[in-house]
Amino acid sequence: MSQIFKYQKTCCECNKTFSTETYSEIKCSDCEKKIRTDKSAHSKYFQNSNRKETRQVWDKTIPDISYTYKKFTINDVSIETFDLLDNRRKVTKTHVLKLRKLLLKGKHFETPIIVNKVDGLKRLIDGNHRIEAIHQIIKRYWDFNIQILLIEYDNLSPEEEIQVFKLWNSGKPQSMEDFIKNVAHKLSFYAWVETSFPVSVSIYRAVDSITLYMLTNAIVAAKKGNTSGRGLMRDAFEEDLKELDQNDYNFAERWLKVYVETFGEPEWGNQYYLTSFFNATMYIAYTNRNRLIPLGKEMETRIKDKKRLINIAKLGTREATQELVGRMSKLLHNFIRSTK
Questions:
Q1: Of 86, 158, 198, 272, which is most buried with the most CB atoms under 10 A?
Q2: 68-121 pLDDT tens trace
Q3: How many domains does the chain have?
Q4: Domain termination residue (choose one: 144, 168, 192)
């Protein structure tokens, strides 16, 4: 009996149409064989092509303009440094009233206010309604103050202000990777990683690599003793990243060498690089950082190939990471107890 295929797909390599039973299949069998027999060429091709494509998308969507990201306290004095632009959104009274009521009830807003600092004034690019609401409250309660997140550009031209405004209001808020890109050049940790590291680390997702956010977030969470894997937070991420020192890098380098030997390279489809699984193992490694090589061997024996752990990791939640830390700790109980 001839085999019946459910799907007709177009190969991402050669653009030929092929039949398959799996919807997620993206390459024909000929291309799959070719890639398997020349893995180094495969990696080089994808690294070059993906980086080029990512760079093109980046150039089209995000202006190459640096900014600072910080906490800022607004009070009766600092409120006067904000300047409302004539060509920005019209302030809606009903929206300002809603924000004012929320602020007086003790509520807050997490999104940053975007400004362009020119001649000592903060020209408002985004945040008109929030600043107006705060201004009205201060008029009535002069001692009112509030700490906000502020993104500050310097001396942008009117055209650049419009470009930045469109970026922040395009319907796609900036990700942690976007924030990290703007501070990566200041980070000693990233400079060390770029010089030498067991795996490829990129700011944005790329084939056969992990992101700088994934790596640093896992380390910071482990240092904080946070079993949920939540390390970097928007209101303090730059400070946390700058605090990563040579000892943290040395630990990360040693652990990733062991991790690769135990769980393989970060290739496409390697489920041991699911975020929750990666965070959980990083937490356990950090708490046992004086015995990383034997820890890797224990994980290979007791953790690897446990389908239940992978299924939990696929959930990708903080609760899943906590569950994994608990289950892994039980499986490694004898080893962990022997290190204390």
A1: 272
A2: 888 899 999 999 999 876 555 567 788 888 889 888 888 777 678 999 999 989
A3: 2
A4: 168
Is 96 within 8 Å of 129 (Cβ atoms)? Answer: yes
Q: Following CA atoms 260, 263, 268, 273 in sequence, which dihedral angle do they give, to the nearest 10 degrees? A: -90
Q: Beta partners for 118? A: 121
Distance between CA atoms of 273 and 261, rounded to whole angstroms?
13
User: Could you give the 3-state DSSP secondary structure of residue 267?
Assistant: coil
195 with 326, same domain: the answer is: yes
What is the SS3 assignment for 121?
A: strand
Domain that holds residue 277: 176-339
Using alpha carbons, select from 219, 224, 279, 226 the residue that is nearest to residue 250.
219
Q: Where are the alpha helices (DSSP H) in 185-288?
A: 188-195, 212-224, 237-242, 246-263, 275-287
